[in-house]
Fold each of these.
Amino acid sequence: MGNEEAVFYSRVLTELTLSFHIIYATIGVGVPLMIMIAQWVGIKKNDEHYILLARRWARGFIITVAVGVVTGTAIGLQLSLLWPNFMEFAGNVIALPLFMETFAFFFEAIFLGIYLYTWDRFENQKKHLLLLVPVAIGASFSAVFITMVNAFMNAPRGFDIVDGEIVNINPIIAMFNPAMPTKVAHVVITAYMTAAFVLAAIAAFRLLKGSNHVYHKKALYLTMKLGFVFSIATAIIGDFSGKYLAEYQPEKLAAAEWHFETQENAPLVLLGVLKDGEVKYAINIPFGLSMLAHNNPKAEVIGLDQFPEDEIPPLYIHYLFNIMVFIGMWMTILSALYWIGINRGWKRVSTKWFRWLIVLGAPLTIIAIESGWWLAEVGRQPWILRKIMRVEDAATTSGQVDLMLMLFAGLYIILGIGSVVVLRRMFRNNPVERELEDRHMEKGGDVQ
Amino acid sequence: MNLEILGISVLWTFLFGYILVGAIDFGAGFFNAYSLLTGKQRILTKVIQRYLSPVWEVTNVFLVFFFVGIIGFFPKTAFYYGTTLLVPVSLGIILLAIRGSYYAFETYGARGHKGYSFMYGLAGILIPASLSIVLTISEGGFIELVDGNPVLDYWLLFTSPLTWSIVVLSIAATLYISAVFLTWYANKAGDVEATDLLRKYALIWSLPTIITAGGIIFELRRHNFEHYSNIQTFWPMFLISFLLFAGTVWLLWKRHNYGWAFILLMGQFIFAFFGYGASHYPYLLYPYLTIYDSFTNPAMAISLIVAFILGLGLLIPSLVLLMRLFLFNKGYVRGKKDFHV
């Protein structure tokens, strides 16, 4: 196998692992916060439905977290196995957040174990809720630290290269690189948003499938409300991300927006197709790009003409960007309508078709997450470390990557199917109505 | 003590932690599967499940900690080991993934699938086998530099008696550690039948453990004489290790104090593991890589150590809490109370 093949298969395998892992990782970061909020609401309102909601979410969470942990271990090791030259560099400069991530993960793992096995062990529910705090913090901080590493790949800082040697290393500056604030905020908040909409979809789905229990209605209202709040936050952070890109990675922004020539009063291009270098059938929002990039309709935005041909990322990322943004806006509108609708007593938000739209929100938000990550990674091409190391120079020279690709693809198929089957069985065999009844009987039948 | 030694000591300690908790976990899965085969599942499954349930995820973290830490402290290892270990470590990851996720699937989703239990048990044996290959490779002689890139010679690796001795040791030690721990745990749970059975397993596996461990030292004489002669200088550590081993076996034989048997076992492995590690010094990979030429820059080293100390401040109390609630809680161990989600 020539090295070109090793590079190609390493890319495919990394993309496959990340695309699969990110689904479980996103849920893993977002859901603990949702469980915490539900349990807290339950304690505050003294409403057993919310407590049970937290409990059932926690049960499903175990399955997703298990897949998240093992695929996370896989990507952690694959980074060294597939990109040894990159990791040698990364080890020297950006190892600190990677190392801290293992602590966050450790912390989360320990308290998750405790939390899961101490339901009803404490007289005071609040004590039990307290055990969830480190789980949620650990989960979110895992995302924070790992995203710092990804931010570093986009905006490497904290070192100098003199005669091919890395010198003047400052791990703190490397961690707090310019890409870090927007990237970290975006990843964490969208994880919360996605988790909320996925859980909302489950509640809506149960309501559609015959159960009219108030439990599901409470769940739906709570999650849609949270989803709305986080999608607004996402939009605000998205705006900051645009400004970050314009300043530090203009080629990524220009490629994502199909902005070919540096110009003032730049319009924002949505959709469209490329024919012989011309953009056709696109929607142009006048001054849109100048606003996004510099908060000023007249500002000049750097176009792709400023970059050598071999440093421009593939232009299809434009569609990835559009998909991500459209889904984000769509979910904001949908959740806003639902929230207002419920408060105003609009019948329409409780109809079948509206609930189907909410169900559809789960796959949509996952697609948005995937598009966002593909945009982030493909948009950095040809670099693995922007302007420092190209992807093809980072890859392994091993000849067995194609075989490993097949093995891992098989693994992810097994894990994907397995997790879905187990989750479905788990909740179908123990519907909420029955569990509520059992719990009441337990309470009623208590002799002591 | 310099930073290099501090770094490798921290990592070595965590690797030891992984080997210990991992062995208990892997062995437990194997005994569980074996008991299904011999119809003794009624005796063992309950004890094993009670121990494994709250800690399965924690085990994995020790491993992650080790491999992330080694890239941080010794970045050059990414180049040498990353390039050459693609196949054995990938196989290890796949086994770990199947085992880890299916543990959750089985425990929380769908109980009682037999084929799965066998796979689970088998994976537990194959993981130490595939990961222990790394130790074999570190002895040198299996990696060549071709055009400046390290290449692993599989034929040489798999025809070497050293490889297979280390594989056998990893499996035997896994089962031995696990059996001794579970004997103590079952005894604590007041489960006489399970204690007796596990004690038997512990005694059975003690023999292959000590024989292969001795055999490996002997084989190193041929394979890597420099390491072999270094081992000689650390002979007191290996002697202590052997005495502790004898102590564990004696306590098990006499059915005395299983808690002490396990503590002595930990001592045995600590002395052997650190004796081995110290004699390997300064090489991470014979003859290419030492802890000195692969060490990171001082700024990174110091920040990693600071992060490590702060991290431990969080971890140790949490681990103590975990152990107090489950491992050392009589009500939980005996299965009187169940507070599962």
Amino acid sequence: MDELAIIGVGMHPWGKWGRNFVEYGTVAARKALDEARVDWNDVGYISGAITVRNGYPGYVAGATFARALGFNGAQVASSYAACASGVTALQVARGQILSGATDVALIIGADTTPKGFLKPNEGDRPDDTDWLRFKLVGATNPVYFGLNARRRMDLFGATQEDFARVKVKNSRHAVHNELARFTKEYDIEDVMNSPVVSDPLRLLDICATSDGGAALVVCSMEYAKAHGHADPVRIAGLSTVTPVYPDTVIDLPYMATDSAGATPEPLRGFKQSIGDKVYEESGLGPDDVDVAEVYDLSSSLELDWYEQLGFCAEGEAEKLLRDGVTEIGGRLPVNPSGGLGAFGEAVPAQAIAQVCELTWQLRGEAGKRQVEGARVGISANQGLFGHGSSVLVRR
Amino acid sequence: MTKTRVPAVDGLFTEVDGVAHLIGAKTPDRESYFFPAHLPGMAGGDPAAVGAELEEVLLSNTGTVWSYTTSSYAPPPPFVATTDPYEPITIAAVKLEREQMVVLGQCPQGITPDDLKIGMEMELYIDVLNEDDEHEYTVWKWRPRGTAGTTDTAAEGN
């Protein structure tokens, strides 16, 4: 697979700003375009990640952003893949560039989120599993995170202090990130004293929802070299794989797992397969990775990713964390941006924001949260309904 | 006046001779199960079930705890809180042996995470989810095996 060059990244700060999502996306896009130093008329493709909480303009996010940036005749698409929407939009753009249909594409995602739990659409919809799980079981998103955390405790001896330690580590990283929403440094007691949301997880173990926007300008390697980007960060692997049946780990929004009664479970589960794909595409492996941005919807899910991305064997994530391997200064820093714990999730922007952070890290532009000498970075993200994504970038 | 007892959502569970069961689907020739039963022609993820005539099947009404947690804050609608102030609910994920699948369900009021352990045997029963002036809307729940007496009393109390 040919690589793509990332020649511009930009973000609007995360927060609970309460303004129109188009504003966040436009700010992020203009920053990315400024970095890329491309003629706006060279941008032949605009790939938007959809927000489902902002009405029709959100459903046609690509066109909404194209108009906000000034219609230039570019082709356009809008993608929805839950939390993986941003990388799906990037995947669409990669196809356009590698097919030769365009040289340069702009990828944008932004969201304005309501207060409180994410909830299903209105109305009686008994054939929609997302509606049923709230109605009949009271299963909010944190319920699934709590089930996962309890498994880690039972199978691997994880403790609530371990979960708290993830939050503490990431909060220390976020102190140096002006784009994060929460930049306060927490200690273990702060986390342990916060109220239980879904046992054994507490409020500070679970990510909030935020407003934010992120954008990337990507192009062919030839275009990058011809336009003054001699050594750009490159996308060497992209993954938006679906599960292989049967997926036997309960995950949102379902009330039951697949059945392994007739078909044995695949050797690699769904979450493992997400990262496997980018390693396969790039020809690199876990040992090559210098820095990672993973989806810590909850603190225990960050620990899962250490294992699912192959940084350690199953059951050894807590040791990696306790040994300081995954903090800045360690061998393999995870979530140097502060992660979702510090950002809160802005669904269509989040997977793009992960790539922004990795790009800054690989360029050596991450300031006080810089991972020294980072050359290879990986992101990992989970959506729902069988969505997930990963991006492998290198320099 | 006695309230009419109706399922909160039709077609997901039933009681046969007083024994509760979830209604699932199964491929006729294979031990591949689905819950809820899927719409005709839908494979529910299983490539081998595409195009198969799925048959309705009552799922095992016992299993073992795979994991458990709580909704300690009131979930948003369509969930209806039955207590004011809201009392946390405990939720169990229970693995069914024959079906090799895990199914979620609420536990009875009064069951907390301290009462549960992974591997513990559980049984399905039908309880009241919420009610209005004329109806009691029912749902399946998971309770530790052998605690029928306590939870039946609770249900009658509603």
